[in-house]
Amino acid sequence: MACSIGIAAAAGPAFAREIAPAVERAGFAALWVNDTPGHDALEVLAAVAEVTETLGLATGVLPVDRRSGEEIAEQVRERELPSDRLTLGIGSGGRRRGALDAVREAIIPLREAIDARIVVGALGPRMRRLGATAGDGVLLSWLDPEIAAIQTAEAHDADAGAHAALYVRAAFDPDAVPRLEAERDAYAGYAAYAANFARLGLSPADTVITPQAAAARLPAYLHAADEVVLRMIIADPADTPAARRFIDRGAELVAP
């Protein structure tokens, strides 16, 4: 049961460079970086690699409709990211047709060029199975602990060695709750996520960690997946002291 921290690429390399040593010292497994339009997760991870020694480096996720598997592999090499610490999360992005084939085709050159873990961001069962069998695992998100445990078990059934990582949006400071709620509501408004919430019978509010519920909710999540990624939600995304408080609180909650 590993636990990691997640940030958005929009936070930038300088912010990541400041907080990454604290993430490493606190004992988290990895720092995951969302690839967002106009910002590059690999650039941010290169900054993290410069200031850490053992911390895992992970993307969540690189959309293959914006860059191919060959392009991702080349950019990893150009940035000299250490493959032994690297997890490449990829996803179909905005594709509506041919999504499975696009992700499958992206995995092939990544496998050939980079000795890194490859996980697939997946909502539906076919994409999750693809991640578990053609890749090294899946990246799940916007789930409650019970459904996360079911989907993790399905990945292990498809391939016993599959790694199931789970993104969980979390706020530990009360002043960050409005941002958490805004992000939750934004995703609930996206067609693919709205359909997934409906299909699973989930309320979006049941898929996040609030300050009041953190002590009870986080242990349940940690038992539901191989790795839980606490996607950091703070009131000001550039507030380094708030980020360090989030890291410290997360480490406190994870500690036995």
Question: What's the SSE blueprint?
Answer:
Layout: E1 2-8, H1 12-25, E2 30-34, H2 41-51, E3 56-59, E4 62-63, H3 69-78, E5 86-91, H4 99-113, E6 117-121, H5 125-133, E7 137-141, H6 145-158, E8 163-170, H7 177-189, H8 191-200, H9 214-222, E9 227-232, H10 240-254
Helix pairs in contact: 1-2, 1-10, 3-4, 5-6, 6-9
Question: Strand-residue fraction?
Answer: 15-25%
The largest sheet is: 8 strands, parallel, barrel
Helix content: 40-55%
Rg over CA atoms, rounded to whole Å, is 17 Å
By CATH, the topology is TIM Barrel
Task: Explain how this protein is built.
The protein is α/β, with parallel strands linked by helices and 256 residues long. The chain has a single domain, classed as Luciferase-like domain (TIM Barrel, Alpha-Beta Barrel), CATH 3.20.20.30. Helix content is 47%, strand content 19%. The protein has an 8-stranded parallel barrel with strand order 1-2-3-5-6-7-8-9, surrounded by 7 helices. Strand 2, helix 2 and strand 3 form a beta-alpha-beta unit. Helix 1 packs across helix 2 and helix 5 crosses helix 6. The protein is globular and about 45 Å long. 44% of the residues are buried.
